[in-house]
Design brief:
With 349 residues, the protein is an alpha/beta fold. It has eight helices and eleven strands. The chain has helices spanning 2-20, 40-53, 170-177, 208-211, 226-233, 242-259, 273-303, 327-337, and strands at residues 73-81, 87-96, 99-104, 114-117, 122-123, 127-132, 180-185, 193-201, 219-222, 321-322, 346-347. Strands 1, 2, 3, 4 and 5 form a five-stranded mixed beta sheet that branches. A four-stranded mixed beta sheet has the order 6-7-8-9. A two-stranded antiparallel sheet has the order 10-11. The chain starts with a helix and ends with a strand.
């Protein structure tokens, strides 16, 4: 079973990662007071919020990423997985100025192109890690650089992960060697609202801005599960239960609405309905995409001859799935193939 599982890892994991997380994040819109809807003031507020999200005010927090120098390169004769469901045998891939320009067979190339013979090897799209703590929890870990959780209050929306990122984290180099080219670095899960995340490229940089993916919006990390109730319940503070988690969210959302001119009774919220509808559509699209990824996962396992029925994965809900691997099989993956998953067999699909 392990060898067949590895076949799926080599052929399909990257496709699922790239196809599943290609959905762009919707930019946050500024929330004007109800009486200002349609006014110039409301438009200015929205623009200001959007600029803050993308890190533009006064040039602060803008990406300073610059592509490294490169020469035209051809990877020849490889099995190429395009990320769009195609697997091309004995194909070529041509890159110039840091971008893929052509994929096919017997490609014509300019003089001076570096050629890499790759027969018998695989070429896949770069892996996009949408939930990473590299840089804020470096590896190897020492106390002076463990800066991922501002665990002093359940809601700390004001902190930014980019201000904790240690660009010299050796984990970035190891991630790149394993095929991870882009990752979203988030605060940890101690808090209900942990703060802003940042999208980075796994490239050398002196600062987080040098690694920052140009044009990528920032994120907001939220956790509603065992971590906040464990961290704060252990201190005798709210939340210590999931209902305490939700109460904490409710309080934070109400306070945020009040700051933007919406009374606590929630009466004049007609101006927000359209945005709520858009949000619901966005969540529905994301749910369909995740379910499609899980279906592809199960169908690929069956097509590759994996032993057992994995259809239960398509019926799971939430961010994580259980692979069906037992602890001995998880240990075998780790010891023989250097593939690391948690002991329960839980994976992010």
């Amino acid at each position: 079973m392990i060898s067949r599982w590895l076949g799926w890892v080599r052929r399909s994991a990257v496709l699922a990662a790239v196809a599943g997380f290609a959905l762009p994040l919707a930019p946050l819109q500024g929330r004007p007071a109800p009486q200002e809807v349609g006014s110039e003031a409301a438009s200015a507020d929205r623009q200001g919020a959007a600029e803050l999200l993308y890190g533009r005010p006064n040039g602060a927090w803008m990406s300073t990423y610059r592509p490294l120098p490169s020469r035209p390169t051809l990877i020849r004769g490889a099995t190429i997985m395009t990320g769009a469901g195609e697997e091309l045998e004995s194909a070529d891939l041509f890159m110039r100025n840091g971008r893929v320009e052509a994929v096919g067979r017997n490609l014509e190339i300019p003089a001076g192109t570096e050629v890499i013979e790759a027969r018998g090897r695989y070429v896949t799209p770069g892996i996009i890690d949408t939930h990473s703590h590299l840089g804020v929890y470096p590896s190897p870990s020492v106390s002076s650089t463990r800066d991922g959780n501002e665990a002093t209050a359940p809601t700390t929306a004001e902190v930014w992960a980019m201000h904790s990122v240690w660009p010299q984290d050796p984990g970035f180099t190891r991630a790149l060697a394993a095929g991870v080219t882009t990752l979203q670095v988030l605060p940890g899960s101690a808090n209900l609202v942990g703060g802003r995340g940042i999208t980075l490229k796994t490239v050398p940089g002196r600062t987080a801005q040098d690694m920052m993916f140009p044009g990528a919006p920032m994120a907001l990390k939220m956790a509603c599960g065992e971590n906040p109730k464990r961290v704060y319940g252990g201190k005798g503070k709210l939340p210590s239960t999931r209902m305490g988690n939700v109460a904490g969210y409710r309080e934070a959302f109400i306070e945020g609405a009040v700051q933007h001119g919406i009374p606590r009774n929630g009466g004049p919220i007609g101006c927000m309905l359209e945005e709520h509808e858009q949000g619901r559509r966005h969540v529905a699209e994301m749910r369909d995409r995740i379910n499609g990824m899980r279906t592809m996962f199960v169908e690929t396992l069956a097509a590759k001859g994996a032993e057992g029925d994995f259809s239960f994965i398509t019926r799971q809900r939430g961010m994580f799935s259980f692979s069906g691997l037992d602890p001995d099989q998880v240990a075998e993956l780790r010891e023989k193939y250097s593939i690391y998953i948690v002991g329960s067999g839980r994976i992010n699909v």
